[in-house]
Amino acid sequence: MPVITTIDDLKRIHKRRAPKMFYDYAESGSWTEQTFRENTSDFDQIRLRQRVAVDMSDRTTKSQMIGQDVAMPVALAPVGLTGMQCADGEIKAARAAEKFGVPFTLSTMSICSIEDVAENTKNPFWFQLYVMRDEEFVDNIIARAKNAGCSALVLTLDLQILGQRHKDLKNGLTAPPKLTIPTMVNLSTKWRWGLGMLGTKRRTFGNIVGHAKNVGDTRKLSSWTAEQFEPKLDWGMIAKLKEKWGGKLILKGILDVEDAQKAVQIGADAIIVSNHGGRQLDGALSAIRMLPSIIAAVGDQVEVHMDSGIRSGQDVLKALALGAKGVYIGRSYIYGLGAMGELGVTKSLEVIHKELDLTMALCGRRDVTTLDREVLLIPQDFEGKWQP
Ligand code: GLV
């Protein structure tokens, strides 16, 4: 068993063990990948204040997200095709999250279905919805999420049309993989992954195959989005969906103050400041750079969460200190899953938790819920002067 001390360690093993097309799918941004890169490099610009001779005993990372107790305010983000990184991946990730005491969010574009995850876990999880053109499908999936006891609906707003990721086109991404010669050559070196896949029936989009109509190639994410996702989604439709769901609603993909204000008017319980991990609008600002202005505008009216770029506990601390009440990790746990299944997801949570706890102590703090900008050193031009 290799000694894992960082998320990067898990990433290296993930790259070795998972088929190239799925590793590349996770590790891509859209077009030039500028936003994807800046999501992480902008975190590096913020520095921390070292404080000494303060009581560092009895520390806690416990907090709440949308009123739910969490062992640390770090949820697992919805990630498409998770069950292709490792057999039954969503079930494994949900179990790791449940044992750790953090929320798990299941993607509409998952391999394991809502029902699969519910049957194999005890605690309620969150369900992420992509709005489809087929209203009956949407009503039905909302009802399925309610029946499964999901405790929040995470409505994604920034992917009604798919941003182009060059690698997915070049690799011919499908779930399950289409057996072309390059893919077969690559799969022949991934025996651990292959054995897992032989042992499961869950190998395509479990939430939608058999539930949605009129799709050309049901194995392709690009066909689903182009043929099914509703490009007309607007605030009026969001308000109706909120009513249909009737429970806690989190709006994901907010990167603009005006949109954050609209989310408040709709009555969202939380918003996620996010650019979809740099996978959608390439050229958009990083989520961490947008966070302060969104917090300043609506932070006292709605719970503000963030994702996109978190690869360490130090990153978590920076986002919380800027005012986020919670963050989400996507790639950081997918690396763990692709590396070593449920154990790897647990490992990624442990790595991040330990980094968060120790970093907080070295900043002279004992409680994540009291973190504020006082622990940070922020360059004066961090947010930048951008003109519309
Ligand atoms: C889907 O959520 C994707 O970013 O591919």
Describe the structure.
- This protein has one domain (7-377): Aldolase class I (TIM Barrel, Alpha-Beta Barrel), CATH 3.20.20.
- It is built from 16 helices and twelve strands.
- The protein is 43% helix and 11% strand.
- The strands form three sheets. An eight-stranded parallel beta sheet has the order 4-11-10-9-8-7-6-5. It has a two-stranded antiparallel ribbon with strand order 1-12.
- The structure holds glyoxylic acid.
- Residues 80, 109, 159, 221, 276, 279 line the site of glyoxylic acid (GLV).
- Glyoxylic acid (GLV) binds at residues 80, 109, 159, 221, 276, 279.
Topology (elements, then pairings):
Elements: H1 7-17, H2 20-26, H3 34-45, E1 47-48, E2 63-65, E3 68-70, E4 74-76, H4 82-85, H5 89-100, E5 105-106, H6 114-119, E6 126-129, H7 135-147, E7 152-156, H8 166-171, H9 181-187, H10 191-198, H11 221-228, H12 235-245, E8 249-254, H13 257-266, E9 270-273, H14 287-298, E10 303-306, H15 313-321, E11 326-329, H16 331-362, E12 376-377
Parallel strand pairs: 4-11, 5-6, 6-7, 7-8, 8-9, 9-10, 10-11
Antiparallel strand pairs: 1-12, 2-3
The protein binds glyoxylic acid.
Glyoxylic acid (GLV) is lined by residues 80, 109, 159, 221, 276, 279.
